[in-house]
What we know:
With 216 residues, the chain is α+β, with helices and mostly antiparallel strands. Helix content is 26%, strand content 25%.
Amino acid sequence: MADDPQKRFEEARSIDASLDSPEALAGRTRVDVYEPALEVEEYTTAPDMRPLSEQPPWRKDFPIDLPTDQYVARRDFAKFLVLTSSAFVAGQGWIAAQNLVRENRLVQPRMKIAQLSEVPVGTSKMFAYPDEHAPCLLVRPDEKTLLAYSQACTHLSCAVVPKVEEGVLYCPCHEGYFDLQTGKNIAGPPPRPLPKIELEIHGDEIYAVGIDLKTV
Ligand code: FES
């Protein structure tokens, strides 16, 4: 039988007509136009050898075999991104909440620590704030000035002593010096200023109301 090119052409067109269609040119031709797509289980195997229907959902979304990765739908991937982003945001919220709770715990009490008459000009008085384990110093360098600091040196926690005439707080352990007016470390090994105790004065009474934890 003689070969008929025209007949062969017509036959080919009838088999795969969609290739010439507008859909094909627009990129909407089915991916399995040339051969049927494989079922997922035909080309992927889980490590425990159980069928995919018995695998946890995450393994269906992210199969271990590379070919199956292609079957992670864009929607699934977007879902995964949203979930991980949400988890990240929730984590940040949890950390922020923890910080808030910690800050609230740091709210210091208001405590009466002395009477003005107990601290003549040029003298100092010890007190404890915010609890009995935290020794502090109240110093009155002149008539109108009252200063208070933690007594624990910021080097190795020795007790500092005031030298009011020299305008310093002195740590005898390693010759550390702090400025009396600011608490700033000015000489010796102390690495930070002394924590300053915030004061309020009402009439003759002196109150400690907070701690300024300076770091520079
Ligand atoms: S403990 Fe104060 S200088 Fe070392």
